[in-house]
Design a protein that fits this description.
alpha/beta; 5 helices
Amino acid sequence: MSKLKHIIGIDPGKGGGIGRMIMVDRPIWSAYNCPNTIDEMVELIKIFKRFDEYPICYLESVHAFPTDGRSSAFKFGENFGIWKGILSSFEIETILVTPQAWQKGLELPKNKQERKNRLKEIATKESGLKATLKTADAICIAIYGMNNV
């Protein structure tokens, strides 16, 4: 097992992102918008694996909502499956985590826009990065992972 603590958090939604924390002497954070192509997704994971052979990934386990259109629900599930396949092919330990699990204890507002803004605040404060709507959930998922390794 690696001496580094290397946590990846992935929000697999179309507008999602990747949050990454590497603990050396202190946490070093990075965040990325979800790549547009499978090849770009693979390249990002290759970079992560070159840095540390044994990262742990927390992948948000998501499902479509009845209010989602068919094409958006399909794309959502497709991205989730692609991430699972890429992570498995690189033999990265992957832990599926529901939104309810990683959001527990964050005392988030019920209103969606207020909740998204609060997640951006939390992600920015904890990581030192300027979290965006695309990266905030992923950073928070990585924070959850860091606290649960």
